[in-house]
Design goal:
Strand content: 15-25%
Number of domains: 1
CATH architecture: 3-Layer(aba) Sandwich
Largest sheet: 8 strands, parallel
Order of helices and strands: EHHEHEHEHEHEHHEHEH
CATH topology: Arginase, Chain A
CATH superfamily: Ureohydrolase domain
Helix content: 25-40%
Number of strands: 8
Structural class: alpha/beta
Length: 306
């Protein structure tokens, strides 16, 4: 596969500094080598540069860095659309606000191809706030709502040329949800598999059912992997740690299943804050998970009888 990596060093959407170093940390941890060793060709498209973007003043006084995030969203959307013309784009964040741009860009591409876009959201949080409902004002909490076309973004964020159908979104690993988000998720029809569900059923059957839906509709699949999907004991380099996340093997199993499906068309790696890491262990884990998604195996498994 032809992989294209693109840095989006955004930290304006998060509550603390450091995410702008995420793309560099992922590159330093050996992302390019991991991909080429698996036989993929690679193009490094460098770093997105935002342009000024005028927005109206919003009544929610809690909002932080709205003009900056709107500018990043517009630039990332254009870059994502261009990168998705051929090959598989891998977007290196930056905080999760980058996905407002990556999703709108790849959704535009999917619409032009006449194929539905599905989204697998691997995160402790659903990021399904609107500009009106966020109390923290941190705009890494709104990208999925924006890309889904929820109301309240017109005049503040770039106009969407294509929306993601919320019924084609699966959130996996959720364990921190605000009341407004819980209601919005239910009303929109998003599939929500929180950690209780994973504990009860296991990650494999939940993910398998979603992948079967993607395949049945001949869909494209965008995977958005937030560091805080993982338990902080194995991935401390994130400013939004929530205990009880995915284990090392649960995360790798999800990536291995995604590879086996052959459905993934684009990927986000977000919320890596190297300032909070321990000798690069989280960056290295994110690279290893990407390698599993792109084909690294524990061992080949020939068919045999038992």
């Amino acid at each position: 596969m032809h992989c294209k990596i693109l840095g989006a060093p955004v930290q304006d959407g998060a509550g603390r500094m450091g995410c702008e170093m995420g793309p560099s940390a992922l590159r330093t941890a050996g992302l390019a080598a991991a991909l080429t060793e698996l036989g993929h060709s690679l193009t490094d498209l460098g770093t997105v540069v935002p342009q000024p973007f005028e927005v109206a003043e919003h009544k929610n006084g809690a909002l932080k860095s709205l003009p900056e995030i709107a500018a990043w969203t517009a630039a990332i959307a254009d870059a994502a659309y261009a990168a998705s013309a051929d090959g598989m784009p891998i977007f290196l964040g930056g905080d999760h606000s980058i996905t407002a741009g990556t999703l709108s860009g790849v959704a535009r591409r999917a619409t032009e191809r006449g194929r539905p876009l599905f989204v697998l959201w691997l995160d402790a949080h659903p990021d399904f706030h609107t500009l009106d409902t966020t109390a923290s004002g941190n705009l890494h909490g709104v990208p999925l709502a924006y890309a889904s076309g929820l109301p309240g973004f017109d005049g503040y964020f770039p106009t969407l040329s294509a929306k993601v159908d919320p019924k084609r979104i699966c959130t996996l690993g959720i364990r921190s949800v605000d009341p407004a988000e819980r209601l919005a998720l239910m009303q929109a029809g998003v599939t929500v598999h929180d950690m209780r569900t994973i504990d009860e059923y296991g990650i494999a059957p939940l993910l398998r059912a979603f992948l079967e839906r993607v395949a049945a509709e001949n869909g494209l699949l965008h995977v958005s992997l937030d560091v805080d999907f993982l338990d902080p004991s194995i991935a401390p380099a994130v400013g939004t740690t929530v205990p009880g996340g995915a284990t090392f093997r649960e995360a790798h199993l999800a990536m291995e299943m995604l590879h086996d499906s052959g459905l993934v068309s684009s990927l986000d790696l977000v919320e890596l804050n190297p300032f909070l890491d321990e000798r690069g262990r989280t960056a290295s884990l994110m690279v290893d998970l990407t390698a599993s998604l792109m084909g690294r195996r524990i061992m080949d498994r020939p068919t045999r009888s038992f």
